[in-house]
Amino acid sequence: MQCAKQGCPGVLSLPIDNLGPTPATYDLPHVGQYGAPAYNQYKALVAQLVRKRRALGMSQEDINAAAGMAEAHLNKLESFARTAQFSTMQLWAETLGLAITLAPSSIPAATARAIETRVAQPLCEAKSHYKHDAPTALQLSHDR
Fold first, then answer.
1. Cα separation of 15 and 95, whole Å?
2. Between the CA of residue 74 and those of 42, 46, 50, what are the distances in Å?
3. Which residue among 63, 89, 113, 143 has the highest number of C-beta atoms inside a 10 angstrom radius?
4. 99 close to 89: Cβ distance less than 8 angstroms
């Protein structure tokens, strides 16, 4: 059973034939609906965007207007009253002359367990119930 909070690596293994009583809550730190590590990364990204905005001498209203965002939207994002969707983060960064890029990092333990489980129980296309379970031809490229 995995923690339902976004970005939380908390996992608890239970035997499927005897689930027993409801397990205690996870003891890993959380911030709202997010796992603390994921939320802290989000906060660091927002802090970088705020620093860049200030370095350019732009107000929140300037960014709202330039990006076509609703009035006071940036204020809500910068004060963490709202959490931005990725597309909004991209727009915000592009408005400041920045780009959000991916960099290699270590694979989280939960992902490693999922890979191990998949290797131990390979995907059977006949048993795929959801379109995201089906194999795809998608490939990642490191070329620019």
1. 50
2. 15, 10, 10
3. 63
4. no
The residues near 8 (Cβ < 8 Å, ≥ 6 apart) are 2, 26, 28, 30, 34, 35, 36, 38
What is the pTM (predicted TM-score) of this model?
0.64
Tokens linked to 53: 């905005």
Q: What is the pLDDT of residue 129?
A: 54
Task: Record the tokens describing residue 50, joined without a space.
Answer: 């705020």
Indicate the DSSP class of residue 28: S
* pLDDT tens track for 40-88: 889 999 999 999 999 999 999 999 999 999 999 999 999 999 999 999 9
Structure tokens at 82: 């709202």
- Cα three-residue angle 135-137-142, rounded to 5 degrees: 125
